[in-house]
Amino acid sequence: MYPLTHFLFPLVISLILVTNGFFNYYQAVLTALLGMMVDIDHYLHRVINYKDFNFRNCWNKAVTHKDKRERTLIHHEKGFILITIFILIILIFSSKLALIFAIAYYSHFLLDHIHIQAKRRFKFKEMGFKFNMPLYEIILNLALVIIILAITLNM
Q1: How far apart, in whole angstroms, are the C-alpha atoms of residue 53 and residue 78?
Q2: Which of these, 89, 45, 96, 48, lies nearest to 68 by C-alpha position?
Q3: Burial (CB count within 10 angstroms: exposed 0-12, middle 13-18, buried 19+), residue 10
Q4: pLDDT per residue as tens digits for the range 42-89
Q5: In this structure, what are the phi and psi dihedrals at residue 94, rounded to the nearest 5 degrees?
Q6: Strands 121-126 vs 129-134: parallel, antiparallel or unpaired
Q7: Cα 1 from Cα 23, distance rounded (Å)
Q8: Which helix (H) or strand (E) holds 46?
Q9: Which one, of 101, 138, 113, lies nearest residue 13 by Cα?
Q10: Domain boundaries, the chain
Q11: What is the pLDDT of residues 97-138, one digit of tens each?
Q12: Coil, strand or helix: which one is 97?
């Protein structure tokens, strides 16, 4: 999934918690940003293994699946277990902070592990960045934006 989806999905979950008084808007936005930032490992992999600091190169390699090892530990089962342990340790100190990390990471992990055979993809290039977005992700993003608007307009 693309960064926008990884931002919008935890934002919807967090905004529901805002409406229930458990989160404030800052915590909701932080959760959404962290949900998107889980993918920083793709960039770090590129920098460490290829000494390539060019963000566009990293993006394009990830989109075209040219580097099969760019998904590091946190995108796999062992990483899932380690992040869960990390979240449980945070839970000892702050339930709210643990929930922020949990929503960010688990929503990201869930979205990355949904495998739908996409018959229709939209391939385009913008400012040198390649996109190969499936139709279902575009529909999901539109639905998430509508949900966000509905939640925020009813507050």
Answers
A1: 27
A2: 45
A3: buried
A4: 888 888 888 989 999 888 888 887 676 767 788 889 999 999 999 999
A5: -155, 115
A6: antiparallel
A7: 26
A8: helix 40-50
A9: 101
A10: 3-153
A11: 999 999 999 999 999 888 777 778 889 999 999 999 999 999
A12: helix
